[in-house]
Every structure is written in structure tokens, then in C-alpha cells.
Amino acid sequence: MSALLPAPKRWTRGVAALLGIPFLLGLVLLTLTPSRVEERMPNLLDLVLSTAHRLGWEWLDFTRLEIIANVLVFVPVGVFAFLLVPRRIWPIAVVLGPAISVAIEIAQRVALPHRAATVSDVVANSGGALIGVFLAIACTLLFAPSTTVPPRSLEAS
Predict the structure, then answer these.
(1) Average pLDDT over residues 14-20
(2) C-alpha to C-alpha distance for 25 and 59, rounded to whole angstroms
């Protein structure tokens, strides 16, 4: 039984898997369908941009919004990667997000001619995934219970 993870880590990984699997399925539906998001939800994009412009964010255009969205969509990928990869090989979590992004872009290029497979998407997605990994590391360092053993006191004989 010593090879099993302590209960809190099992619980965290279980929740991450429970949330991560539907998230990744959603990501696949978002990125690997023939139509682009702006074709499926033009009213939503217009609403976001018009609201941003009313708030004085005139700098926000469709291209910048797409980059921000690509970053934000991949932040959870990085968090889930960090939570699901065993601790002894956690640096693999750093490359999982970029690898998933490259796989998506290759699939779009090969199988979905109406989708635009771009290097800028890979960069934005990878940046979001890295932000997610570093957020997960920071939260682990800040909020995880300490596992250090207090030093034994020396008793005089």
C-alpha cells in the first residue's frame, strides 16, 4: 500500500481527471471541427468586442481577442497537466500543452482545410499552458500542506 498516493493527492488527481476529460473533449470540439468559432458564434464575438470598445478598450480587435482567447483556453491545459502528471516527472507537464497545441494545428492543416493552422496559435496556446503549469506550481507551493518532518529535539542524557 505504500506505493499508493496519499489521500489528498489521489483526491486532487481524481477531481482533475473528472474536470479535465470533459474540458479536453470541449477543446477538441472547439478546435477540430470544420467551422471556425467566429462562424459559429459571430454574435458573441461582436458582443465581446462592442462591450470592450464601450469600456474604452479600442485597442482590442478580433486578432488580439483571438490571441487572448487562445492563451486563456490553454491555461487549464497546463493546470490539468501539472495535476495529472506524476510528481517525479512533473517537467513533462511543461511540454504537454505545447505538444497538444502542435497536434491540433497539424490536424487542422491536414484534415480541416477551412481552418487556419498558424504558428501564432501554437505560441499563444503554449503560453497559456505554461501559465497554467506555473499557476499550479505556485498554488501547490502556497497552499499544499507541508510534508516536512520537524527536527527531533536533542535531549541531554
Answers:
(1) 83
(2) 32
